[in-house]
Amino acid sequence: MRCLWLTLADPEPRHNGQFIYSGGLIEALANAGALVDVLGLSRPESNRTHAVDGNVRWWLADHQPLSRWASLASCLPHIAHRCQTADMQRLLGDLLRQDGWDCIVFDGISVGWAMRPVLQHYSNKRRRPKLVYISHNHEESIRAQIASNQEQPLKRQAMWLDALKVRLLERRLVDAVDLVTAITPEDGSLYKARRPDKRIDILTPGYQGRHVAGRRITTDFPRRAVIVGSFDWVAKRMNLEEFVSVADPVFASHRAELQVIGSAEESFLNQLRKKVTATVFTGTVGDVTDYMDAARIAIVPERNGGGFKLKVLEYVFNRLPILALDGSVAGVPLRQDRSILLYPDHAALAQGVLNVMDDLKLLNSLQDHAYAECRDKFDWSSRGKQLIAAIAAL
After folding, report:
1. Which residues of the chain form CATH 3.40.50.2000?
2. What is the pTM of this model?
């Protein structure tokens, strides 16, 4: 199978959920036997040295940062406008002229701009390759949620405009392709509600990080909870800021520590640092495992932004008990009161963490059951085989 894979950018290094999912699927598809040509933007931090890596051939366009405000004048949402550079368009044209593709994959809404030139090139539908949309989120609902939760009026209006553009672009993508994959069953149901006639497959991520065979939380551990992630996306920053504003004073009054580990703009972190007592922001770190090993609890406080939280798998397989907002851990087989504790809002979540911080028996039971329930369900190789089989069946 010859596959032309269109994506936002080179996924290496895989420091956030988008790149982990894209990189994992590309690798899994190639390992399952497909020949994959990947088109995306180059990244300054990438260490890629070869254009060909096994069954994968890379076509990386020059990285040309575009102003966020430039997308206001475009019919494309910012997430897609930033990817539609002149070099990306040129390389796409060159690749389409090669022909011989069995399928063309649109990896995320970032490459939604490419749908028009692809359809124009294959005006004869009989000779058109199969088209696949790999969804990272049900973008229409997520962007509307983020806009509605933005408190600043001007930003809220800009986000609503962008959300409308996202809605139109995602619907055009779904309508045009032969197969849509959703990252969670919940997202799949949302796509199916609008297009019950469309083939919608669920394609959850795999996990290839560290598996901790056994871990016991004891009184030797600091009374510390952690939040691990990348906070470059506005939704992630909103979630973090909202939770910390509620949790920090409660943690401080109970002599507990909240540690936030992961990349974000230093200006954003410095603003938060001025407002907190019990919370530590590490910024970018080389390895998160040492931080997770020293914590009693992992928190998922995400009110904004849906989809699959890849850091949940990192918590599970590193044997950290998870406390989260209800509805924030879609796609994983964790059960309330057995392998996870869920709460209705940030205040309840913060208090819930403190309520169980010293219940070591419960914490160890939660992490043991979570590991057992996920252990055999997130293998990347099976995702590649699943995707090849789905495309072949079209």
Report:
1. 2-206+379-392, 224-374
2. 0.89
Helix, coil or strand: residue 86: helix
Only one residue has tokens 């028009």, namely 116
Tokens of 4: 């032309």
The candidate with the shortest Cα–Cα distance to 177, out of 244, 225, 109, 233, is 109
The candidate with the shortest Cα–Cα distance to 108, out of 9, 239, 186, 234, is 9
CATH class (in words) of the domain with range 224-374: alpha beta
pLDDT tens by residue, 304-359: 656 678 889 999 999 999 999 998 888 899 999 999 999 999 999 999 999 999 99
Residue 262: which region, alpha, beta or left (left: phi > 0; alpha: psi -120 to 50)?
A: left
Q: Of 134, 297, 295, 300, whose CA–CA distance to 203 is shortest?
A: 134
pLDDT digits (tens, 9 = 90+) for 163-194: 999 999 999 999 999 999 999 999 999 999 99
Neighbours of 126 (CB within 10 A): 5
To 10 degrees, the CA torsion angle through 369, 370, 373, 375?
A: -110
SS3 of 256-316: the string is: CEEEEECCCCHHHHHHHHCCCCCEEEEECCCCCHHHHHCCCEEEECCCCCCCCCHHHHHHH
3-state class (DSSP) for residue 199: coil
DSSP secondary structure letters along 112-167: GGGHHHHHHHT-SGGGPPEEEEE-SS-HHHHHHHHHHH--SHHHHHHHHHHHHHHH
Q: Are 205 and 263 in contact (CB under 8 A)?
A: no
Residue pointed to by tokens 């922001």: 281
Architecture of the CATH domain 2-206+379-392? 3-Layer(aba) Sandwich (3.40)
* CA 28 to centroid of chain Cα atoms: 17
